[in-house]
Amino acid sequence: MDAAALAATLQSAVPGASIEPAASVDLQTTIYVPREHVTAIARALRDTADLKFSFLAELTATDYWPRDPRFEVVYILVSLEHKHRLRMKVRVSGSDEHAAHLPTVSDIWPAANWLEREVWDLFGIAFDGHPDPRRLLMPEDWEGFPLRKDAPVQIRRPTPTFEPLQVTPEEFRQNVERDRLARE
């Protein structure tokens, strides 16, 4: 199914949403979706019989700083039933450092749970309604978002840590023993 046909199918399933077919270098069907209709379109992609995109393969983001909208969140969806892939993109403004928000799709595709946490942790794009919005890759006390293009990569400063990184040999043996007993 090409992008124009997919956009027409989604337009009838979600009236009022402006779905833009997009050109793609790798010939994968690509569409742009407005952020206020992400949840409705995601449900339509999963539940419409002609589409059945039941599998979220990947979720990531790109930063086009200083352009606005600054971010594009990219969902790679797979229809196992129809053997089709889709790249769904959502433009997100980043004019304010803490303004990048999208609704979560983790209730539609459970695989989005950890993927949304990863995008929040690395890009600072928050997913409203997410069941567990904690950091996933960076330490809890980390300041900023390392994959943003304005992240200070040239500044040399020690990584702040608030817990010891080393344990004594006796503590290590106790930890291994405690873990072994817990597994039995």
The proportion of strand residues reads 15-25%
Spell the H/E element sequence.
HEEHEEEEHEH
Q: Please, what is the average pLDDT?
A: 87
Uncertain runs are none
Summarize the biggest pleated sheet: 5 strands, mixed
How many individual helices? 4
Radius of gyration: 20 Å
Strands ordered across the widest β-sheet: 1-2-5-4-3
Summarize the structure.
The protein has about 180 residues and is of the alpha/beta class. The protein has helices at about 5-15, 40-45, 110-125, 170-184; strands at about 20, 30-35, 55-65, 70-80, 85-90, 100-105, 125-130.
Entry keywords:
single chain; 184 residues; alpha/beta; five-stranded mixed sheet; 7 strands; globular
Explained architecture:
- The chain has helices spanning 3-13, 38-47, 112-123, 169-183, and strands spanning 20-22, 29-33, 55-63, 71-79, 84-92, 101-103, 126-128.
- With 184 residues, it is an alpha/beta fold.
- The strands form 2 sheets. It has a 5-stranded mixed β-sheet, covered by helices on one side. A two-stranded parallel sheet has the order 6-7.
- It is globular, with a radius of gyration of 20 Å.
- The chain starts with a helix and ends with a helix.
Ordered list of secondary-structure elements with their pairings:
Layout: H1 3-13, E1 20-22, E2 29-33, H2 38-47, E3 55-63, E4 71-79, E5 84-92, E6 101-103, H3 112-123, E7 126-128, H4 169-183
Parallel strand pairs: 2-5, 6-7
Antiparallel strand pairs: 1-2, 3-4, 4-5
